[in-house]
Amino acid sequence: MLHKLSSKVSDRIHKYNSLSQDKNQQAFQIAGKDDCKGYKSCVYFSNWSVYGRKHFAIDIPVEFVTHVFYAFITIDANTGNVKFTDEWCDLQLPLESPVSSNQKVTGSIQQLFQMKQLNRHLKVVMSIGGWGTEHLFQAVTSDHAKLDNFINSAVKFVCEYGFDGIDIDWEYPRNTHECKQLVKLLSGLKQKLNLVSPDYLLTIASPGGDENIEVLDFPELDKYLSFWNVMCYDFCGEGWSTRTGYHSNLYGNNGDNNLSASNIIEKYIQHGVSPQKLILGMPLYGRVFHGASSPTVGHSFTKEILPGSVNGDTCDYKSLPISQESFDEKTGSCSYYDSQTKQLFVYDNPQVARMKADFTSKYKLGGGMWWDSCGDVAIKEKERSLIYNYIQQLGGSAALEKTPNHI
């Protein structure tokens, strides 16, 4: 163990080791319908954001956040064991202590643990996987020994580093067989987590595209999940779309296809998922179309990067070079067109955030989720902050879930 978080964490590890040795002991609890305890406000924290973007866990506005998803923990394809993606950032980087600016902690995980100690309603969940890691899940779930190693090591990570649960970000199961493998993985994790504490969280980052939704076995997956983080963004983008479009619109056609957040959420509900277990995923970044032929969506683009253009096809919300934006009330989206550089930016703005909060309330969803925490403006800039506007529209921090975390 690279650092010790608390004596209670050690007690949980001891309890886990003792219980897991008894192969016949069953402490299996299915995730049932959760009573409404307030809205969940979830953000993913990307560990690489501490470098170029200089964004740290301590910058997360915890008064408006209930869950932080630590992205990412990865998998050793040879053994199936989980492991850190960046031990320097995760465990060793000297950082400001949330307790005192005159003290230091080592690593983002310890910084988050102290934030939990100061904010007993804040949960921190380890997120395993991420984009481009589907081959690791395929390797683990196709080998019984590796799957056992994965489950055991993941739950030990939860105990050792003071997490409140596990999030699986498998993008994406390609067919019904891989979905069955995901069900098996979640079933094993849920059983092992309940050996330690039945209220540890188990979630997934779930898809929005029709092809990826179609392969999911919703009743089986839902048995084991505390809630679903539904990724209602990246509906279109410069890298794969044929026309410009909104990438996170709430309603209607986005200009490139018929994907919308409301349509996706409706599909999950139609498949039997309780609205309270659905967390509406939203972006804290915009997508960029270069060489856009029109200031409106649904038109051609060339990908030509003119002088003064933003490099890449995404941009943090706080860094969008906007001067006069266009809010589309019909679709619940926003855009800005730079006529000099022929760039069309599509993104959520505060008006969209409040629309999505109203949607959350109307359909009695469990709350909202954002990728990722470094993208929003500082919370002191309340008039532009997407997180602040969404939470305020729901009723402010008093409307958020207040269940205790694990210390």
From TrEMBL:
Keyword flag Ion transport: no
Subcellular location: Secreted
Reaction(s) the record says it catalyses: Random endo-hydrolysis of N-acetyl-beta-D-glucosaminide (1->4)-beta-linkages in chitin and chitodextrins
One GO molecular-function entry: endochitinase activity
Pfam families associated with the record: Glyco_hydro_18
E.C. designation(s): 3.2.1.14
GO annotation terms (biological process): chitin catabolic process; polysaccharide catabolic process
Domain GH18: 39-397
Gene Ontology cellular component list: extracellular region
PANTHER family hit by this protein: CHITINASE, CHITINASE 12-RELATED
Family stated for the protein in its record: Belongs to the glycosyl hydrolase 18 family.
Protein name, per record: chitinase
Species: Scheffersomyces stipitis (strain ATCC 58785 / CBS 6054 / NBRC 10063 / NRRL Y-11545) (Yeast)
Species lineage: Eukaryota, Fungi, Dikarya, Ascomycota, Saccharomycotina
